[in-house]
Amino acid sequence: MSRTVFCQHLNKEAEGLDFQLYPGELGKRIFDNISKPAWAEWQKKQTMLINENKLNMMDPQARKFLEEKMEAFLFEGKEPTIEGYVPPKA
């Protein structure tokens, strides 16, 4: 059975994640307040950020950078800057 959350990113009720996908407090906050569609959107942006910045995910600095972008995107609606990427107009 799927769960519903009030998604802080989409600002509406939507299908919640099946389990906590990210560790710690931030992971819990994402699980409680972010929907599957919003998370999927972030995953696409995260991949672009990793590729564009040639991030090594073993590097704590790279993980911190991504975490900050993730939090800003999911909870503050801030689009990450990705060279040559123009978000589709709503």
From TrEMBL:
Pfam families: Iron_traffic (PF04362). The keyword Transmembrane helix does not apply. InterPro entries: Fe_traffick_prot_YggX (IPR007457), Fe_traffick_prot_YggX_sf (IPR036766). Keywords: Iron. Belongs to the Fe(2+)-trafficking protein family. NCBIfam families: PRK05408.1. Could be a mediator in iron transactions between iron acquisition and iron-requiring processes, such as synthesis and/or repair of Fe-S clusters in biosynthetic enzymes. HAMAP family: Fe_traffic_YggX. This is Probable Fe(2+)-trafficking protein. It comes from Alteromonas aquimaris.
